[in-house]
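Give me the fold.
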Amino acid sequence: MNDSENHKKNDEKSEESLILDDNKSDAPKSKIKTRLGGSKEKLSKFTSKFKDKVEESKEKAKFKLEERKERKEIEREEKLEKKKLEEERAEREAKERAEKARIEKELAEKKAKERAEKARIEKELAEKKAKEKAEKEKIEKELAEKKAKERAEKARIEKELAEKKAKEKVEKERKAREQSIKEADEKFRKITSEQQIENQYKKKKRIICPICGSLNDGTHSVCTKCHSSLG
């Protein structure tokens, strides 16, 4: 923008200088006419020189005009090129922003998916642990109940066995007492029977007293009459 403004200022200065040159060229012409008066030859020479200068000035002005046009064309092309570059840069930056936004979006979606997957895995793991814990507690409870049942069954069996043993012991002792009583009874009966047989034998047996000659039964060891020993 500064270069174009400088070019414009230079063009304006060039146009002003051309106008000043024309004004300056007109001033000498009038002065020459008054000075020379009626000298046609000098006037002709001056006119010829003046025409040459005018032509030269015109050529210079034309050159400067062409130069200004070329400069303006160059400036226009530069502006167009600059605009094109700016548009390309803007388009490139827009594409870069869009690409960056796409990448950020994909990254955000990826992170969201990863978080969701992580949350799902953690949830499944927590549920699995809770299930395993519940299953473990269930097994432990069942095992404890089984052991308690086994202990109760064992205690019941031991109690029944102890009661059975105690009953058997009582029965054995009862039978032993009964046997002992029976044996004692049999022994007593046997002894009594033997004594009865012996008494009957003794009663039937007759012993004559050697002193008085009295007849005594076998149950007496002393004579019933004289009381002498019969043995």
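The CA atoms of residues 12 and 64 lie 11 Å apart.
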